[in-house]
Amino acid sequence: MNVGTDTVISDINVAINVQHSLSADIELKLTSPSGTTITLLNSNTCPAGGDIAVTFDDQDLL
Fold first, then answer.
1. Is residue 6 part of a domain?
2. In the chain, which residues have pLDDT < 70?
3. Which of 19, 29, 54, 61 is such that its CA lies 20 to 30 A from the CA of 45?
4. 17 contact partners, CB below 8 Å, separation of at least 6
């Protein structure tokens, strides 16, 4: 997804469904148009199993 630098994003959700034999191999990062990168999923935090199905939501729980 490409977003212009003048676009304001008020809410973002990222859903992934990855099938892979070793989830510890996977790292997921999100980069803004200005170059700011955040790590959503670090290979060090994944268990040794396979397959990942997760949704990241930027809203706080109430």
1. no
2. 1, 44-49, 60-62
3. 61
4. 52, 53
Which of left, alpha, beta for 41 (phi over 0: left; psi -120 to 50: alpha)? beta
Task: Let me know if residue 23 belongs to a domain.
Answer: yes
Residue 60 pLDDT: 62
The two tokens of residue 26 are: 């996977």
**Is residue 46 one of the residues assigned to a domain?**
yes
Tokens of 4: 């212009």
**44 lies in which domain range?**
14-57
What does the block give as tokens for 29?
């990062």
Residue 47 lies in a domain: yes
Whether 27 and 37 have beta carbons less than 8 Å apart is answered as no
27, 30, 19, 21: which is closest to 46 by C-alpha?
27
